[in-house]
Write the structure tokens for this entry.
Amino acid sequence: MTGQTGAKTGTSATTLDEEAARLEQALLDMSSCEGASVVLVHCPSASRERALLRELGVRARGRRFATAEVSLREHGLETPDGLVREVLARLVPPGENRPCGLPGMLDRFRERHGKRAADLFDEAARAQDAGGDLTALCRGFLRAEDGDTTAARRAYTAWCDGVEPPRKFRNREVRRALSERTAQRALSELSRVVRALGHQGLLLMLAEGDALPSRTERQREKAYTVLRELVDNFDGSGGAAATRVILTGRSPLFEGPTSIQSVVPLRMRLEIPSAAEPAPPHRSWTTLVGQGNGRRHRRIAAPDERPRALRNLIRISEGLPPVDRVTQMSVGQERLDRTISRLFEVVKRAGSFFSVLVGEYGSGKTHLMMHLAERALEDRRPVFWLNLERTNIDLGNPARHLYRFLESSELPMRGRPNVLALAARWTRSTAAINSLRARLGEVAEGSGEAAAAARKALRIAEGARDPGFALENFLAGADLEARPGDASYRRDAYRRIFLWFELLARAEEIRGPVILIDEAENLYSSGLPPASRRTSLRSLAFYCGGALPGACVIMAMTPPAFESMKAEARDLLEEASDMDTTLDLENVARFRRSLWGLKPEPVKPLSAAERKELCERVRRMHRSVRGPHAIEDWDDRVSRAVRAHASPRTLVRALVDELEAAWWAG
């Protein structure tokens, strides 16, 4: 293996044959651990790009993966619902070479299984945790009497178009049409539907990515944000399963002032941490060259049955924190756990807790928050993430960000579902609806914000033709997404959060919530005007100002962003407090005092001993997945990596990349 840790990034050259081999091994890994990933390939010409995609599609379908190829020149990332619509139409099942779309795949499933098709699909969908609107549409298609799928096709087409079908063609299990806000969730559900149809997984090829830099500034920013969300969240809790997304393009996508290099967080996620050769299967960024260089790699083979550790390995390879057994990769764990225990004790005594975690990009803020999340779940506390990506920057309008807040949650229950999955579970059978109504009635008899929300939910259900549909939309906040940010709708959204916490405590015996507000620096790096930041700070005053009883709220941001927030909070929050539309729940005065009075928690640099321990944990984790692999100069590599990488994330990623390259070389 040549190259060394800390070498220049962005120069990982591969050939078409190497990329095809990397893909096959990656697909076997993805199928085994049911993970998802996003990778980029820099192509020198349009002809090389076409040849690569053709070969990758053939290899993937040979591994029983369904594929879809979409041109980003024709369908931009800035319209994610349109992209999903095109993916659905461009699906190619294993064993075929032409797109037949999802309806065509359903036709083939019914041809294979006959009258048992619907029941077999239901059983497989449950096993894959596929239970949303797309699954309901597939179920309606397969249950069509006498094979007449006219109504099911009309319902499916209307859903894809983002509209409600005529009443006679409606599928009563479908809650929401495809939209920009539901697109990523629909894409994740599609990956599970593909598995339920008997295939190993999904390969999604996004071609001609070099068209993105030439979009308008607004379109380009939106497209890069969607890409960043895919990179960061596609493999999250309840996300895609056994899916590989490959984004290909020529130089404009990778070089220049409007390329992905212009988005620092995205670049840091994707750039290569080492120049180890050959490029291992899960390296997130490679450059296709014309000629081979004679490098060899090991034989492609299915991994051993260690799916959790394998998924963590893949995520670390791609610059993401592990999602399972996070604490096994935390150094200084005893200190962290003591701090977290004290934090929960403070919540019990004081009724709520708020603090700010500060650190530069890559310093380990998100990992520490995930460590906290894992400990919270073990303590029977639900975790809610409020990630302030640019497309979610409508923080000042809780009616609009409520759905994202609920979607980005984890519950201390089997499978760690989010609350939207729980809402579906509570509203899709008569017995469950009756049970939910009874609990709502108990809450409604009390006083306060949760009681007011419960009374409104019961009124809506009472007057609805489909009470389950009405209650699920109410709990998910779907009826609020298009509403303005005036006081009445903000209070309505806040009340539903109170109601959720009350229902979780009553129905599941779950303790007070942990709310993690990540990437708050985007309030200051995305060009928001002061008036928009004022409304955002007003919403943060609700989450961070002590309104939520029993809540532990942690906000993470870079040090400069925290200083900016603190400096302008005095004026902007004073303006907000003087506005007649500011609610009592938005305790801006207390939030302002908190910002000025608290001492932020810095992400402390690891000591030399802790960095060595972290390196050893990386090697143990890799050995548990790939088996023992001797690297004679391992100690020297560790020393170079420690010197070259200041942040724990890039240090860990670089070492994993070194280990993976050595393993892949055989």
About this structure: The chain has a mean pLDDT of 87. DSSP finds 27 helices and twelve strands in the chain. Residues 1-50+64-71+208-321+609-666 form one domain. The radius of gyration is 25 Å.
